[in-house]
Amino acid sequence: MAPITEVEGRRLALSNLEKVLYPATGFTKGEVLHYYATVAEVLLPHLRGRAVSFLRYPDGPDGQVFFTKNVPPGTPDWVTTAEVPRVEGPSRMVLVQDLPSLMWSANLVTEFHTHQWLVDTPDEADRIVFDLDPGAPASIAQCCEVALWLRERLARDNLETYAKTSGSKGLHLLAAVHGASSERVSEYAKALAVEAEKAMPRLALHRMTRSLRPGKVFVDWSQNAARKTTAAPYTLRARPEPTVSAPVTWDEIEECRAPGRLDFRAVDIAPRIQDHGDLLAPLLETEAAGSLP
To answer: Is 179 helix (H, G, I), strand (E, B) or coil?
Structure first.
């Protein structure tokens, strides 16, 4: 029988704590839950108010990996949910608002993915995101070169850019915006991706065409579409090792010269939070959001 744990007054059945989810390192489900409890203070502000898509991997990254967008069966009645617009019609999704709902969600064994808008204002984006994805033999080092160009370009439009690793091969760049629809943000993001390709034709690519991607960095602007989601800051990823989508400094990006330089795992994150705090905290300050030109 799963042990019952009380979290801020909510009773949770946390199951299979000894189960190894990451065989390459022996990282267990219990350690996954401990990780999320440890980073909750910085993770939760980036989840609150946003519908969450769960990318579940209950048997580890080598097992079945699948998205759960609708409220899962058996969701406790104290977990906040909201109706959100979808092309195929409204659906109800989970909001991870507090530590109990975070730990309940983490017990499902999931990556956390969110839209670039809040459920209270689904018609207005509050983030712009670029997913920089390297095609081998390009690596995160080349992503950093493209990131520096995009940072400077966005600054010309008075948008302050912040960065995190994807937790996989690349980088995510984010800026806070207001007053624009997801469609308008997507148009702007695509235009900048096209500019990046023109400025760095041997390095950057704005098209998804697989045959064009070897040795280049795909500047994925499409995740700004209202229907799409991106891995949340601090989420664990379903990778061979317990890698994290970790905020990074611009100094770290400028100094990145080799693959693996910006790989961060669960055990690395608490010391980074102690040293840096939440590097993405400015994204949560509404007065710091910029307007698209």
So the answer is: strand
Q: CA-CA distance, 142 to 138, in Å (whole number)?
A: 6
Candidates 34, 18, 16; CA nearest to 266 is 34
Contact in structure between 97 and 56 (CB atoms under 8 Å): no
Write b or e for each residue in 101-115: b if 16 or more Cβ atoms lie within 10 A of its Cβ, otherwise e.
bbbbbbbbbbbbbbb
Return per-residue pLDDT of the chain as tens, 293 residues: 677 899 999 999 999 999 999 999 999 999 999 999 999 999 999 999 999 999 999 999 999 999 999 999 999 999 999 999 887 778 999 999 999 999 999 999 999 999 999 999 999 999 999 999 999 999 999 999 999 999 999 999 999 999 999 999 999 999 999 999 999 999 999 999 999 999 999 999 999 888 889 999 999 999 999 999 999 999 999 999 999 999 999 999 999 988 888 999 999 999 999 999 999 999 999 888 999 99
C-alpha separations of 85 from 111, 117, 119, 123, 138 in Å: 22, 12, 9, 9, 37
Q: Is the pTM of this model over 0.85?
A: yes
Which neighbouring-strand residues pair with 176? Answer: 127
